[in-house]
């Protein structure tokens, strides 16, 4: 091994043997936002063999405050994040093979990418995609590392099929109406703290030191100075539909996916959640009002507007995104607000 | 009595990090209902619960002196 | 404020008011290695008013595995780290004023830089410089944030003069013969985790939310899955020579500094610690042997060699660095091994 | 008896994270000597000590059931 990795091989749980393993492995990184760009930089610097980055978005000015790798030039060029991340990673380490895939991650589009990878790292911004990753991880027996952050809060959990409970055991259902980075903000240190947890467990899995993998679900709040790792042994459910004895992988079916349709003859996309939600429109309206959105409401719907983008949200979770025919863009806007 | 720890924004809503409340031999669901009512906390049904730093579900029975943490999952990234 | 900081101002403990404060403040960052480059990137992305970066070293290939900002091109150009960090920071955020100072940080050279700064962030690699920072922080009443990491271990503690104990209260003396990144290795996630703690407290201090500052000394080990925050209220000593009732700022005196001398007529620098140390040469020799150094020893000294650099270490802590007349370079090599 | 937690590389030297040992009414210095002798730990004099997650010095007196953590300071960066 070259001098480049000398400080990493000096760390005895990795060593020269571990470095050889790292350089022979392939990681699938889903998302290239805050968690994604930082994970991409880490894996590249660590000398991963191959890195596949999937993202549907492009670099915007508001990303620069917390998303590593990206520069003002990427914003001016409106580069897709996956491509911008790839370019910066190659300036850092030309030995790493980086593949950039610009697409919306769904059960259908992600499944082929699971072939041959050693590890999947979650850097998405919504629970729907995470539940898809969770099912694909179980189906293909590939570990994945959940990570998420909002405000000064973050959490991480490593799922190893056949060993740990899965995210479906822990959450049971997709949580409703949480804060997102677009409604509650986000600070860079929260991102870094989540990535530190993901990256450490990624190294353990890549060097096959499974005993060292964090045996619990870690949560922290860097502003309120809280930290806890919750043991999860008891959470594993034998009847879990994702990881139990008779799995059906429910999140791989079309009925559990968010649907988007371009409304005929209008510059509008309708976004429909998998199952009707019961949104508390009044609370959502006041949260969004506090987050810089212009909000109008009546008992049946909210109309919210920001930066020239207008969206109408119904209490069953359905939404109309005005001014676009781009279904992926509409889903991005929807999930930024509703998680 | 049991100790209840509020993580993240729940701490701000309640106004403190920790409270000591009745709850011995209750299940988690009952404690959540009581806490929701007493402190005006919404959405506790989708908040994760740890009892003495171990995962717990709504049916978990509490004992005297237990520490219950309510941890709201987040989705950003 | 521009769209650039929108997700940071959405975070209510910062808000627009906090952002204005951040953009009016000046931070002194001492060190531009692993902790330094990551802190520089964070402060730049967060929109600090002015950032002064002090470092004595240049970018090497073995830095790339854990030091943010730097690229292969910086290694080829052997750029000083402070200058390389400045260039990358300006690609990220042209609004921030970045000052790069290439020098060895000592009591004498650092003191003038404390004038007018709001906060000092520690990104050094040795306790001697930290104790100098600690004394200057008390003398000039400026908060500073200690951070350090080796292997998978890291720690952070925020010192606010007049409020918290200082590092001298906690450590009493400079700890002897610990592991350094050059002897125990270092993994990127340990760096990120320390920086997450430093960065969060930096934001709190910059927006003047002092009540939120982490009230303790946090330590973690990401491989062994340990985390603890130790309360420190009881550690404050009224007779502490750095922060007590009659401070003498002992680490600002010349007798408490490491001395370097070019040996007359030889291509060798002698490095002498402030007070004689009692090194366990046998243990040090076997540690260094395990870390890739070629070691020869007799009961009085160790001769160690790596990458063409040779150093002779005596049990009282004195060392001869062969093949150089550069006193700063000699001190860098010495502190890399002996902390 | 008191519980002793070993942080970082101390855990590897001792071979476990936690041990339960005699120590009631001892001071920290005496506990350090005993632990150093029993487990072959070197350099404990420059290791930080927390008793029940609070800073302690060599003179701090221990009580039955206390948890003592030994935390080696690191200097890298």
Automatic annotation (TrEMBL), chains A, C:
<protein>
    <submittedName>
        <fullName>Thiazole biosynthesis adenylyltransferase ThiF</fullName>
    </submittedName>
</protein>
<dbReference type="InterPro" id="IPR045886">
    <property type="entry name" value="ThiF/MoeB/HesA"/>
</dbReference>
<keyword id="KW-0808">Transferase</keyword>
<dbReference type="GO" id="GO:0005829">
    <property type="term" value="C:cytosol"/>
</dbReference>
<keyword id="KW-0472">Membrane</keyword>
<dbReference type="InterPro" id="IPR035985">
    <property type="entry name" value="Ubiquitin-activating_enz"/>
</dbReference>
<dbReference type="Pfam" id="PF00899">
    <property type="entry name" value="ThiF"/>
</dbReference>
<keyword id="KW-1133">Transmembrane helix</keyword>
<dbReference type="GO" id="GO:0004792">
    <property type="term" value="F:thiosulfate-cyanide sulfurtransferase activity"/>
</dbReference>
<feature type="domain" description="THIF-type NAD/FAD binding fold">
    <location>
        <begin position="5"/>
        <end position="241"/>
    </location>
</feature>
<feature type="transmembrane region" description="Helical">
    <location>
        <begin position="144"/>
        <end position="163"/>
    </location>
</feature>
<keyword id="KW-0812">Transmembrane</keyword>
<comment type="similarity">
    <text>Belongs to the HesA/MoeB/ThiF family.</text>
</comment>
<dbReference type="GO" id="GO:0008146">
    <property type="term" value="F:sulfotransferase activity"/>
</dbReference>
<keyword id="KW-0548">Nucleotidyltransferase</keyword>
<dbReference type="GO" id="GO:0016779">
    <property type="term" value="F:nucleotidyltransferase activity"/>
</dbReference>
<dbReference type="InterPro" id="IPR000594">
    <property type="entry name" value="ThiF_NAD_FAD-bd"/>
</dbReference>
<dbReference type="GO" id="GO:0008641">
    <property type="term" value="F:ubiquitin-like modifier activating enzyme activity"/>
</dbReference>
Automatic annotation (TrEMBL), chains B, D:
<keyword id="KW-0501">Molybdenum cofactor biosynthesis</keyword>
<keyword id="KW-0547">Nucleotide-binding</keyword>
<comment type="similarity">
    <text>Belongs to the MoaD family.</text>
</comment>
<dbReference type="GO" id="GO:0000166">
    <property type="term" value="F:nucleotide binding"/>
</dbReference>
<dbReference type="GO" id="GO:1990133">
    <property type="term" value="C:molybdopterin adenylyltransferase complex"/>
</dbReference>
<comment type="function">
    <text>Involved in sulfur transfer in the conversion of molybdopterin precursor Z to molybdopterin.</text>
</comment>
<dbReference type="InterPro" id="IPR016155">
    <property type="entry name" value="Mopterin_synth/thiamin_S_b"/>
</dbReference>
<dbReference type="Pfam" id="PF02597">
    <property type="entry name" value="ThiS"/>
</dbReference>
<comment type="pathway">
    <text>Cofactor biosynthesis; molybdopterin biosynthesis.</text>
</comment>
<dbReference type="InterPro" id="IPR012675">
    <property type="entry name" value="Beta-grasp_dom_sf"/>
</dbReference>
<dbReference type="InterPro" id="IPR003749">
    <property type="entry name" value="ThiS/MoaD-like"/>
</dbReference>
<dbReference type="GO" id="GO:0006777">
    <property type="term" value="P:Mo-molybdopterin cofactor biosynthetic process"/>
</dbReference>
<dbReference type="InterPro" id="IPR044672">
    <property type="entry name" value="MOCS2A"/>
</dbReference>
<comment type="subunit">
    <text>Heterotetramer of 2 MoaD subunits and 2 MoaE subunits. Forms a stable heterotetrameric complex of 2 MoaD and 2 MoeB during adenylation of MoaD by MoeB. During catalysis MoaD shuttles between the two heterotetrameric complexes.</text>
</comment>
<protein>
    <recommendedName>
        <fullName>Molybdopterin synthase sulfur carrier subunit</fullName>
    </recommendedName>
</protein>
